[in-house]
Amino acid sequence: MHLLLTIAWRNIWRHPARSGVLIAAVAVGLWAAVMVIGWANGLMQQRLDYVIERELTHIQIHHPGFPDDGHPWDHIPGHDQITSWLDGHPLVHSHASRTITDGMLQSPVKTSGVRIRGIDVAAETRTTTFHENMVQGTFLDADLSNPAIISRILADEHNMRIGNRIVLTFENADRELTSSAFHIAGLFTSASSEYDKRNIFVRSEDLTEILAGRPIFHEIGVMLVHEAEAEAFAVMLNERFENILAQTWRELSPELSMIVELGDVMVLLISLIIMAALGFGILNTMLMALFERMRELGMLLSIGMSKLRIFCMIMLEALILTFSGALAGMALAWLSLRHLGQTGINLEMFAQGAALIGFDHLIYPFLSIGNFLLMSLVVVSVTLAASLYPALKAVRIHPLEAARDT
User: Fold this and answer.
1) Which residues of 223-232 are buried (b: 16+ CB within 10 A; e: fewer)?
2) 116 pLDDT above the threshold of 90
3) At 354, is the pLDDT very low, low, confident or very high (cuts 50, 70, 90)?
4) Residue 243 backbone dihedrals phi, psi, to 5 degrees
5) 297: which residues sit within 8 A by CB, 6+ positions away?
6) What is the bridge-based pairing of β-strands 92-106 and 219-224?
7) What pLDDT is recorded for position 174?
8) What are phi and psi for residue 143, nearest 5 degrees?
9) What pLDDT band is residue 23 in, cutting at 50, 70 and 90?
């Protein structure tokens, strides 16, 4: 084996320019593949984390009729028993109860349809990180009568500022229209401009007093210790409590679940496309080297070198070329990911379009251990497959024909 490695190494560097170009092509191709996959991972994971940690939580509990109809009278029955049970369960990290109704936002400028979300500031802060979206003012703890926070987009559309008064009109639990004045305490900006236009936050106690004259809740957001327990925990909730509907984030947002699954498929497709280009490069280089050395290989066969050794020598040349480029590409990719993982890839020029579909323009790429193993497996498989044909062609050389043709 040592002799074969020596011969293969020397054969590679007979044409240093050609071998150098192939190694550089492998390195750049692998670096590009890793960066694209890392960017896709960052894009998907940031969207997933954002939606779960700032909006959906792992599980939501509603009245069975509320998700489809959104009627204020479809509040959660036995709310106190459910929250008491959640407080004592070891799998639950935190939970927050919300009072929700759809209504109209009226200002001197225009009227907009919005979803009014009444939240418990302390519980919401423990459960989600939505308060980190605040860009101006305070998070409903201002010393104002009926404080409200709205998005900066909505404030600009209505030409409103902090301290201004808005009027919210909605249907109460007795199925009668009611209106109440709120004062803007702060402005927020989320990753989704559509979400910003549709949601207003007020204190739960202020909203329930107007809505029903007593505490009622339409949603309980639950964060678990481990997300993997979400599906089983939702089933347990539905079996334990009657007239409720507990759903995981995958059921609440099937499009997000589909994006995550498509992300895995996209990673595999990108790997295969780039590695296919790599495979053709290896195949072309090895065939060129083979045709240039037909007489030499024929001579080696005629003096007694076995076909197995010839086969192994060609395969070793391909493996050395590929692994040299792959190691360089992986090292370059690791350095790039380490740097960009801290600074992020700023796609500010696409920020407006990204916000429309709920994605951030600053992406922090990363590669998981599984991705590294997948890339390594694909590189080895492609290299072996691409070098197999030249190696088989080499062992079929007839010594006499090779000497005559050259």
Assistant:
1) bbeeeebbee
2) yes
3) low
4) 60, 35
5) 290, 310, 394, 397, 402
6) antiparallel
7) 86
8) -85, 65
9) confident
pTM tops 0.90, yes or no: no
Q: What is the mean pLDDT of the chain?
A: 85
Tokens of 315: 């395969």
Q: Please provide the distance, in angstroms rounded to a whole number, between the alpha carbons at the two ends of the chain.
A: 29
167, 323, 329, 338, 365 from 335: Cα distances, Å: 54, 18, 10, 5, 12
406 has pLDDT over 60: no
209 touches 178 (CB < 8 A):
no
31 - beta bridge partners? none
**Residues found in the chain:** 406
The residue that leads in pLDDT, 263 or 57, is 57
Cβ-proximal residues to 265 (8 Å cutoff; 6+ apart), any chain = none
Look up tokens 């593949």; give the residue.
33
- Phi-psi category of residue 295: left, alpha or beta, with phi > 0 → left and psi -120 to 50 → alpha: alpha
Q: How many angstroms separate the most distant Cα atoms in the chain?
A: 102
CA 2 to CA 131: how far, in whole Å? 64
DSSP SS3 for 94: strand
